[in-house]
Amino acid sequence: xxxxxxxxxxxxxxxxxxxxxxxxxxxxxxxxxxxxxxxxxxxxxxxxxxxxxxxxxxxxxxxxxxxxxxxxxxxxxxxxxxxxxxxxxxxxxxxxxxxxxxxxxxxxxxxxxxxxxxxxxxxxxxxxxxxxxxxxxxxxxxxxxxxxxxxxxxxxxxxxxxxxxxxxxxxxxxxxxxxxxxxxxxxxxxxxxxxxxxxxxxxxxxxxxxxxxxxxxxxxxxxxxxxxxxxxxxxxxxxxxxxxxxxxxxxxxxxxxxxxxxxxxxxxxxxxxxxxxxxxxxxxxxxxxxxxxxxxxxxxxxxxxxxxxxxxxxxxxxxxxxxxxxxxxxxxxxxxxxxxxxxxxxxxxxxxxxxxxxxxxxxxxxxxxxxxxxxxxxx
Length: 379
Known about the structure:
alpha+beta; nine-stranded mixed beta sheet; eight-stranded mixed beta sheet; 10 helices
C-alpha cells in the first residue's frame, strides 16, 4: 500500500504569497508543508524592487491590508535576519500638473493619514536625500510608510525562519502534479491535508487549468535593472519615483487633475503609456540601485527584453535622480499574474482547496495582510 504523508495544511508555491499563507496558518499551531517546484523561488517574488508600498494602495481595505502587511514584514524581518529599510518614499513633481495631483491627494486624506504624509519643498527634499535633482523641482509627496527589502535575500531567508520558529516543512524541488482533495501528489508521493492553498503565481496553467482559463487572468511582463554597488557607501536614503508613477497606482485615481496629467504624458511621450512605463528607484543593503519598470500584457509574454525600454527608463530616471554610479550590472524581466480590474483572484475549485493568485504586482505589499484575512476566514 502506498504510504500517505500527513499535514494539516499544504501550501503550493514558496513565493511571497505562499510564504505569507504558510506563516498565517503556522501561527495557529497547525502542521504546514510547503511545496516549491524549484530549488528556491525564482519567480516574480525575487524579480521586483523589494518595495513594501502602502502609498500605492487606495484608502480603505487595501491600504489597511498594506499597513497590516508592513507590520508583519517588520516582525518577520527582525526574526529572519534580512535587511529591512524603513526609508519612506518621495513622489517628485517637476510639472504643475504633477504637483496638482499630489496636492489633491493630500487634501483628500484623513487627519490620521496625514501624519505620515507631507508636501515637501525642494529644500526639504534636499535635506532628506542627496539623490534628487532639485533644479526645476516644484515639490514632492513624502510618505513615511514605505519599506525596502532585498527580495532575493528575504525570499530565501523566510523559509528558514518559518522552519525554525513554526516547524513549517519545505519540499523544494518538488513538483505538485495532481490535487484531488484531501489528497495531493508531489514528487511521486501522496499527501493528505485538511486544506490546500494553491499559490502558484504566474504558473497558473498547470493546476486547475479550466479554472484559470475561465478566470480572465492574464500575465504582465516587466523589465528592470540593477546597478553596481554605489561607491563610498553612498545612500539614496529614500525610495524615489517621478510623476509617471502618479498615473500608475490606484491610490491617485480619484484626483481630479489626474486625467489631464495622463493626457499630457500621452501627447508628449506616448512611448511611456505604450509600454506601461513608470520609473522608480530603490536601494538594497549592498548599495545597489534597483531601477524600473515597464508593463506588457498578454498570456504569452515574449522572452526577449527590449533595450529601448530600458533606455526610456534610464533617460527618465536621469531627469530626477543624481547618483554616483549608473553602471548597469544586471537586467531581467519578471512576469506576474493579473486579473484586470481586481486586486486578487481567490476561488475554491473544490472543497478544501483555495487558489490565491493575481495580486497584480503588489504581492510584496499585500500578501501578508491578505493571508491573514484569508486564513482567519477559512480556518
